[in-house]
Amino acid sequence: MDGWRARLGILLPSSIVVIEPEFNKMSPDGVTCHFHRFPFLGGRAGLAPGEPAEPSRILEELWGLGELAVDAVQMLSHLNPSAIAMA
User: Contact at 8 Å (CB) between 12 and 85?
Assistant: First the structure.
């Protein structure tokens, strides 16, 4: 039975693709990872490819995640996880 030891809820930025495979590889037997993505472009919305984002744009985008994070945690809580973390 999957998740018999623990279920982990993990919030992920939408633009990061390496975390899911890594968490799944590192999870011991009986531990399952359940992911929920939230929109995050690292301050690059509207920028040309390769154009660096200013740190202030990244922070502004992070500050705007408040309500999205609450919704994501509520969704993950339906799984009755042992823990919820943001990657």
Answer: no
pLDDT in tens, 41-65: 888 888 898 898 999 998 988 888 8
In which order are the strands placed within the sheet that holds 6-13? Answer: 31-38, 6-13, 83-86
73 neighbors 49 (Cβ within 8 angstroms): no
- Residue closest to 38 by CA, chosen among 76, 67, 70, 12: 12
Does residue 10 fall inside a structural domain?
A: yes
Sign of torsion over alpha carbons 3, 18, 68, 64: positive
Residue of higher predicted confidence among 3 and 34:
34
Look at residue 81 and tell me if it is in a domain: yes
Give the distance from CA 70 to its chain's centroid.
Answer: 12
**How many structural domains does the chain have?**
1
pTM for this prediction: 0.78
Q: Structural domain of residue 23, as residue ranges?
A: 6-86
